[in-house]
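User: quick one, sequence for these tokens?
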């Protein structure tokens, strides 16, 4: 309303009245476009029509685009075309690499906690957000997600390499999953998983800088 009131300041009362009549006539005629309405007036298709082309221009300048016309005639924007980016690994990769060894570790970035994973064959990297790094059900859920990803791609997780800190969390669950755990020596860290964490943190720093 404030914008319309400001727009009226450049017009005389007679011009404002003519603009209102032009906008009213547009609705009576079922909201044709400005171009079509001007054509109807120019062609004399409506006898004794009091609306002029100038009045139509006044209406556009004062009221802007008609809201009802925009809502009624606007169509949904054409969505962007999606492309199928599904990648099928070459058959040669499957022949000798059906079973996968994965290396896992914890990672924290600020207050966010993750279970990270990278395998030693395909080098597929996973990063699963977690609420708690030391709760068995949460770790099991994250490992299950990782295992499902490999299973869906035709691979089977056979061995998990990790720090010894994971042993209390995974002893029971790995029996159910049919996976063998290969922990590091006491005080050591799993080198492949550590390198994967460094790479992930570098990418985050690059994205945030």
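Assistant:
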């Amino acid at each position: 309303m404030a914008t319309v009131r400001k727009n009226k300041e450049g017009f005389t009362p007679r011009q404002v009245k003519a603009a209102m009549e032009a906008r009213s006539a547009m609705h009576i005629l079922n909201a044709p476009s400005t171009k079509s309405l001007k054509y109807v007036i120019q062609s004399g298709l409506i006898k004794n029509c009091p609306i002029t082309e100038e009045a139509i221009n006044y209406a556009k300048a004062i009221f802007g685009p008609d809201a009802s016309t925009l809502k009624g005639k606007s169509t949904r924007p054409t969505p962007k075309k999606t492309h199928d980016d599904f990648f099928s690994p070459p058959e040669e990769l499957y022949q000798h690499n059906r079973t996968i060894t994965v290396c896992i570790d914890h990672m924290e970035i600020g207050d966010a906690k993750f279970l990270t994973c990278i395998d030693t064959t395909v080098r597929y990297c996973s990063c699963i957000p977690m609420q708690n790094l030391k709760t068995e059900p949460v770790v099991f859920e994250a490992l299950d997600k990782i295992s499902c990803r490999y299973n869906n791609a035709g691979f089977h997780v056979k061995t998990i390499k990790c720090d010894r800190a994971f042993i209390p969390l995974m002893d029971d669950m790995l029996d159910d999953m049919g996976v063998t755990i290969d922990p590091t020596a006491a005080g050591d860290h799993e080198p492949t998983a550590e390198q994967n964490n460094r790479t992930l943190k570098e990418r985050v720093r690059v994205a945030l800088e």
